[in-house]
Specification:
This is GDSL esterase/lipase. InterPro entries: GDSL, SGNH_hydro_sf, SGNH_plant_lipase-like. It comes from Rehmannia glutinosa (Chinese foxglove). With 390 residues, the protein is of the alpha/beta class. The chain contains twelve helices and ten strands. A six-stranded mixed β-sheet has the order 3-2-4-1-5-10. The chain has a two-stranded parallel ribbon with strand order 6-9. It has a two-stranded antiparallel ribbon with strand order 7-8. Strand 2, helix 2 and strand 3 form a beta-alpha-beta unit. The structure holds 2-acetamido-2-deoxy-beta-D-glucopyranose (2 copies). One 2-acetamido-2-deoxy-beta-D-glucopyranose binds next to loops.
Length: 390
């Protein structure tokens, strides 16, 4: 996510969007056939952006503002070497894997990885809206070409490799992939807002298209479970995007910059509210599935408000950066570059590199989702239901 860079001096302007968890078959009946009470799920398939990416991106392929993810001090806290995660250590998805007693999810693009317990399709810089939309509207600065569409096509390839092909004749192979699987749709869409920032495309348009993309994505995955191929192979879901009328850029940009900076929180709030309503429709459409909504936005606000309790001393200053001052952040000397340095105690910081969070913050967020009240329905109740039915 790059949005913060554009809103100086407050560099930690973050769009905080929803995390969605999907359990496609009924968790209770599914559990009855599982032998391991400590493995409520056999596998996890994750999608999202840099907040979820466990290594599909490297220094030379990631967003240009954060080009050093393959260097230390990325990874220094937990792994003690860079793993191409945008943090000093584990991400929310890593803590979730640990809660489920599963190995850390390997990145899809690692051909040698053991993918028997799941795959991570998330890519840093990824958008919800299909890439061609940004190209068409001249929003190609600092942008990775992968979108949720790309991740879906990777999932398709993965399914094909497992024999879950485009045919009703192979439900067994599909069942093998989806049975007792958790689909984790990490935060996605923040980059869409960031990339469109300063362009002539209205925020409302981005909102609509981003939410449509996520909804279409969920629908595709929901349908895939029924033995059909994940849709969206040939036709991008947001194929018919309007070419937005170009208005005078410079004045528009200034105006938008003020507005966007001020209303980032409101924007995430609205986005999440709309998405939540869509999820309710989706629950009706797929009554066999359990859909958990993880409230990233309010979890984040709660941690910030109770920072001391979590051991945080720096709410906004960047741990790994350059230049000191209030934020210790300099775009041209980003974390991992030769001139940037890491703070001594990352666990006292919320912000790792200017946009991404420290392991300590990701743990606090994971705790809010897993143990706290920020998942609806509560994640724990889901797990205990699976346990008791076993
Ligand atoms: C994009 O840029 C090209 C070349 O500068 C211009 O012709 C075109 O009108 C622009 N399109 C939009 C949607 O702004
Ligand atoms: C949830 O709570 C348990 C028990 O207090 C703790 O061991 C675990 O680390 C917590 N999970 C997360 C993700 O923080």
């Amino acid at each position: 996510m790059v949005i913060s860079l554009l809103c100086s001096p407050r560099i930690t302007l973050m769009i905080k969007l929803t995390i969605i968890l999907l359990i496609l078959s009924s968790p209770i009946s599914a559990y009855a056939t599982t032998n391991h009470p400590h493995h409520p799920f056999k596998s996890v398939y994750a999608f999202g952006d840099s907040y979820t990416d466990t290594g599909n991106t490297r220094s030379n392929t990631g967003p240009s503002g954060f080009m050093f993810v393959s260097n230390l001090p990325y990874g220094a806290t937990f792994f003690h070497h860079p793993t191409n995660r945008y943090s000093d250590g584990r991400l929310v998805i890593d803590f979730v894997a640990q809660v489920l007693s599963l190995p850390f999810l390997p990145p899809y693009l690692d051909p040698k990885a053991d993918k028997s317990s799941g795959v991570n399709f998330a890519v840093a810089g990824s958008t919800a809206i299909v890439h061609s939309f940004f190209v068409k509207n001249n929003m190609t600065i600092n942008i990775t070409p992968q979108s949720l569409q790309t991740q879906l096509s990777w999932f398709n390839k993965f399914l094909e490799g497992k024999g879950c092909k485009d045919s009703y004749a192979t439900p067994r192979e599909c069942e093998a992939v989806f049975h007792d699987a958790l689909i984790w749709v990490g935060e996605i869409g923040a980059n869409d807002y960031a990339y469109s920032f300063g362009s002539s495309v209205p925020t409302k348009t981005i909102q609509k298209l981003a939410i449509n993309s996520v909804t279409a994505f969920l629908q595709c995955v929901g349908i895939a479970e029924k033995g059909r191929k994940v849709c969206g192979r040939s036709r991008p879901t947001t194929n018919r995007v309007p070419n937005v009328v170009h208005v005078s850029r410079s004045s528009y940009r200034r105006q938008r910059q003020r507005r966007v900076c001020r209303s980032a929180n409101k924007q995430s709030d609205t986005h999440n509210t709309i998405l939540k309503a869509k999820l309710n429709l989706f629950r009706k459409q797929f009554p066999q599935s359990v859909i958990v909504y993880a409230d990233y936005y309010n979890a984040y606000l709660t941690v910030i408000k109770n920072a001391k309790k979590y051991g945080f001393k720096e709410l906004y200053k960047v741990c790994c950066g350059y230049g000191g001052g209030t934020y210790n952040f300099n775009y041209f000397n980003a974390c991992g570059s030769p001139s940037a340095t890491s703070c001594a105690n990352p666990s006292q910081y919320i912000n790792w590199d200017g946009v991404h969070l420290t392991e300590a913050m990701y743990k606090a967020m994971a705790d809010a989702f897993v143990n706290g009240t920020y998942s609806q329905p509560p994640f724990r109740s889901l797990l205990s239901k699976k346990h008791s039915s076993g």
